[in-house]
Amino acid sequence: MVTLDKLSKTYNKGSVLAVDKVSFEVNKGELFGLIGPDGAGKTSIFRMLTTLLLPDEGSATVDGFDIVKDYKSIRNTVGYMPGRFSLYQDLSVEENLNFFATIFNTTIEENYDLIKDIYVQIEPFKDRKAGKLSGGMKQKLALSCALIHRPTILFLDEPTTGVDAVSRKEFWEMLKRLKTQGITILVSTPYMDEATLCDRIALIQSGKILSIDTPQNIVDAYPDKLFAIKAESIYYLLNDLRAYTKVKGCFTFGEFVHISFKDKSATNEPELLAYLKEKGHKNIEIKAVTPGIEDCFIRLMTEETN
Amino acid sequence: MKQFFSFVKKEFYHIWRDKRTMFILLGMPVVQIVIFGFALTNEVKNSQIAILDNAKDEVSSTIITQLDASKYFEIRQNLHSYPEIEKAFEAGKIKMAIVFPQNFSEDLHHLNKAQIQLVADASDPNVANILTNYATAIIGDYQRRINTNTMLPYTIDTETRMLYNPQLKGAYNFVPGVMAMVLLLVCTMMTAITIVKEKEMGTMEIMLVSPMKPIMVIIAKAVPYLLLSIINIASILLLSVYVLEVPINGSIVLLVFESILFTLVSLSLGLLISSGAESQQTAMFISLVALFLPTVMLSGFMFPVENMPLPLRIISNIVPAKWYYSIVKSVMIKGLGLKVIWKETLILTGMMLFFLTLAIRKFKIRLA
């Protein structure tokens, strides 16, 4: 459905490289996630695919249409929800939806079944101005507007940024339901924990794709054993771990520090415990953990920079 | 087409719901007409004058009565000698003194020629000029009346005629100027701002990724402001006819047609500005500096173009308001028809097509 072939984008006359030869494919009916921190190039990729920006190099097709030549056809078929809330704040919920339905040559009634699950949640507020909605409701309205013309592909640029945890969860459930309707969804997010909710993900950093696979495969591909360590002072713990020669990767993860060792020696764990005790740490807790997407991302990122 | 009307309807919601802006848009012409028509007027009313009547005959007293009866003059004192004139001026009590020579009526009746001296305080040259003109007009008026009854014409030596605006009414000048200014502000600035606002709010992003054609977006944005402008044209004309008592001497249909043409020029300019500006402030700034100032300064509405140095006269030709101002003056005040203003009309039409084509070509179908 969507193919990118060495797509590149620079800003400021080539001095800032935002997207660096990115290639991937999104299959029909797939929920594909583009995962990466702010400034990784997610929005640039989305804007190129939705024909809003021209690539500097490379090519891409959306639903078989070239993003440069056939931009008009793409604009007729896709649904796009920009990262920022981009509806008319001074129009009511219903007026916004009606407006976008007309712009896309359709009516609310025609595709009501598609947005029903989402729209019923905001329908009690249909006379309220869009600008006065809460963050979660704004997202639901924006999604309804992007869906109203039954697009073949839905581009959602950071739909859950700035939305509370409950609304985020609801939002992803909605996406799953939409998938069953046969709509291909391309979603970007900076939240690593949302990656596992996608069929396949692409991890992206500084405009480069680090890895593309199913979330499970990416986690399974983590080569080392991962340990989580906790002690009273996380600051000194981190410093001492960094100074410890046998530790390969080390970064904080909530109240824990995640580390992996350079070799697979079985004595790693007791040796480290002894080292930390010697350094005067108290209440030390070391446990083996299964790596998450974030662990994979950080490992790939450090590999890339080395 | 349904898309288009839906877009226009949405645009009206924006205007209607932003009550403050709407009030400014519709109230601005009223306020400007009132300010320019009454407060900023350069008409001189009830000026204090002094009379030194050395003749004291029938003719001189008739003229004095007429001067006193006009709303422009008020006779403050009757003087008895020349030195008193200077004293009166020095006291700052009077703006002008009128001196009748001895034998005034005898000269007039026997020599058919007589003189009146107008002494004006030229420390404010404009006022002095206006006052002498008023006085001359009133004397000339008297002269014409006595001439109708005689075979041999009598002449009183003040021969000036005030064309089209015999009373030198300031409003005659201001109404066309205010019309040009209001239409330019409403159309250019507001369309530029409203389009740039969509860019700022991110809604333009969504509009671009939709089947709506860019040219439709542009036109749909302009339509509500065209309608608002027509309301403004109507309110300005009503105010000027019924409040400022400036008559519409020419064809009202032609006047409205030309005003709509100028509105379209302004709208095209607004669209052009919006394609270059990225923020509402920039759009407003460009509209004000690049359009509003030249309109006020170079259209001939504040300062006569003929008196400007050559470079400014050349620049004034690219100011659309200059042509519109001249059209409105011709149609509304002089009562002339299309035969006289076809050149201006053609220039405005050309400007509109040029700006509109440029605006549509420069409209960004992408974000950067």
Automatic annotation (TrEMBL), chain A:
PANTHER family: ABC TRANSPORTER ATP-BINDING PROTEIN, ABC TRANSPORTER ATP-BINDING PROTEIN NATA. Belongs to the ABC transporter superfamily. It comes from the Bacteria. This is ABC transporter ATP-binding protein. Signal peptide: none annotated. SMART domains: AAA. It comes from Solitalea agri. Keywords: ATP-binding, Nodulation, Nucleotide-binding, Transport. One of its GO terms (molecular function) is ATP hydrolysis activity. Residues 2-231 form the ABC transporter domain. Gene3D superfamilies: P-loop containing nucleotide triphosphate hydrolases (3.40.50.300).
Automatic annotation (TrEMBL), chain B:
It is a multi-pass membrane protein. InterPro entries: ABC-2_transporter_component, ABC2_TM, ABC2_TM_bact-type, ABC_2_transport. Residues 136-366 form the ABC transmembrane type-2 domain. Keywords: Cell membrane, Membrane, Transmembrane, Transmembrane helix, Transport. Pfam families: ABC2_membrane_3. Its main location: membrane. The chain crosses the membrane at residues 21-40, 171-196, 217-244, 250-273, 285-303, 340-360. One of its GO terms (molecular function) is ABC-type transporter activity. GO terms for cellular component: ATP-binding cassette (ABC) transporter complex. It is found in: Cell membrane. Belongs to the ABC-2 integral membrane protein family. PANTHER family: MEMBRANE COMPONENT OF ABC TRANSPORTER YHHJ-RELATED, MULTIDRUG ABC TRANSPORTER PERMEASE YBHS-RELATED. This is Transport permease protein. It comes from Solitalea agri. The lineage of its organism: Bacteria, Pseudomonadati, Bacteroidota, Sphingobacteriia, Sphingobacteriales.
